[in-house]
Amino acid sequence: MKQNPKIIYNREEMCDLNIKALKSRGVEIADIAAIAYKQQSKYTPTISYDRCVESVLRLLTYRDIFHYIQLGIEIDRLAEVKAFREPIQSIIEQDLGLFGCDETIGLDIARNYGTIGQTNFGDIDVNKVGIVRDLNEQGKTPGHVHTFLDDIVGALAAAASTRVAQMHNEDIALEGDNQVDIFELAKSHGRTKKI
């Protein structure tokens, strides 16, 4: 009796599968973290590169992001072997300027960290730095398609950059006597009720 393939993975498995999928397309975690670091260190010079790496790895454990990475990479791969019918084959293969499905996925990934995440994605998408630039350029050569991957990688970097900024602000908020028990705060404002 044939066994059904596994379709539900835990966080560690998703992260591992995402790392392998990205690596199969020439993308390393360090490449994504470098973009996040470059973007965020302009505003917060004290952030660490290691925190950017940790943020990228955290993102790779999210189920929606897992699905986007796996889907996007597979679409690009199938377009490379010309597995789609026309006209979508040429639209994906040539990364048509008015084709926005890839950016929609990028925006949704970046949305994990709110409007700023999306703004950061727009910055990376327009300026195409680091591995995003390399993927975009390689995708213009015969036999290579990175229509979805360059946006996914840019969105991961944008979300990681935003996560680092949020963590930095949380660190500042928790310094000194700023620590607040949120449940006590809610009680003092009459916002708790028994369920």
* Radius of gyration over C-alpha positions, nearest whole angstrom: 20 Å
Distance N to C terminus = 48 Å
Question: For this structure, what is the CATH homologous superfamily?
Answer: PgpA-like
What is the SS-derived class?
A: mainly alpha
Q: According to CATH, what is the class? A: Mainly Alpha
What is the CATH topology classification name?
Answer: YutG-like
Number of helices: 10
Strand composition percent: under 5%
Major sheet characteristics: none
What low-confidence regions span 5 or more consecutive residues with pLDDT below 50? Answer: none
Number of strands: 0
The H-and-E topology, N to C, reads as: HHHHHHHHHH
Mean pLDDT level = 92
Overview of the structural elements:
By secondary structure, this protein is mainly α. The protein has one domain: PgpA-like (YutG-like, Orthogonal Bundle), CATH 1.10.3760.10. 66% of the residues lie in helices and 0% in strands. The chain has 10 helices and no strands. It has helices at residues 11-24, 29-41, 49-59, 63-80, 88-93, 101-110, 114-127, 130-138, 149-174, 182-188. It is globular and about 60 Å long. The model has no long low-confidence stretch (mean pLDDT 92).
Offer a quick outline of the entry:
The protein is mostly helical and 195 residues long. The protein is built from 10 helices and no strands.
